[in-house]
Specification:
Blueprint: H1 18-41, H2 45-48, H3 56-75, H4 83-99, H5 112-134, H6 136-140, H7 150-190, H8 194-224
Helix pairs in contact: 1-4, 3-8, 4-8, 5-7, 5-8, 7-8
């Protein structure tokens, strides 16, 4: 992607670090939106009254309700405390994905370094939650249910766990790079009409990849906090 022009070039950002600039920009926008949403929510009775019209408050309520339903469907009842975590992961990924669809911008999630960092974050989160929930039992499950096969199960489990952040990051990076490269190619070739189709496809792919990443992270947390550990 280093051969493509980005608006970050105009402020002297090296192509090698455009993903960092994109990441900082998207994160700043998300923080600003979060503060605006909190201000729109209000306090006291106003905070629990549903929005009467579509706006920042109405949009935020809709998204939070969707994430609450999604978390409950994967992790079960009583897991509302995880909504802020997975909501943050979902919004961070999808906003970075969509940012790359803006002409002259790039997606941080298309860079393998950024994508692996998000995958590593998910890896750390589910292991910390597993240890917090199960303690020694979480560590012991790496040995498997049969003690005399522990010598075989431990390395298999360790390898399978360490593969997860790489599979999450590589899947995200490859899909977003391919999607935005195809879009850029068709824009160069046809300029109008045809790119509109690929913008729609790119938006769909961005949403699906964010959803897949978030749901896989939820599944890992569900497995790490399962009571059979």
């Amino acid at each position: 992607m280093s051969g493509y022009f980005t608006w970050f070039d105009t402020v002297g950002v090296s192509h090698d670090y455009t993903y960092v600039a994109a990441n900082v920009t998207v994160t700043s926008l998300l923080v600003a939106f979060s503060l605006a949403s909190r201000a729109a929510l209000g306090s006291g009775d106003a905070a629990v009254i549903p929005a009467g019209k579509f706006g920042i408050k109405g949009f935020t309520e809709t998204v939070v309700e969707y994430m609450d339903d999604l978390v409950s469907s994967v992790l079960g009842a009583g897991t509302r405390k995880y909504v802020p975590l997975f909501g943050s992961i979902f919004f961070f990924v999808i906003m970075n994905n969509l940012f790359g669809l803006i002409p002259g911008m790039t997606a941080a999630t298309g860079n393998i370094n950024a994508a692996l960092a998000i995958g590593m974050f998910s890896f750390i989160v589910y292991n910390v939650m597993g240890l917090k929930h199960g303690g020694w039992h979480y560590v012991a499950h790496f040995a498997g249910p049969v003690w005399w096969l522990a010598w075989l199960m431990i390395p298999i489990e360790i390898i399978s766990h360490f593969i997860r952040p790489f599979s999450l990051g590589i899947r995200l990076s490859v899909n977003m790079t391919a999607d935005h490269t195809i879009l850029g190619t068709f824009i160069d070739l046809t300029k109008v009409v045809i790119p509109v189709i690929f913008y729609g496809l790119g938006t769909f792919v961005s949403f699906i990849q964010a959803l897949v990443f978030t749901m896989l992270s939820m599944v890992y947390v569900a497995m790490a906090t399962a009571d059979d550990h």
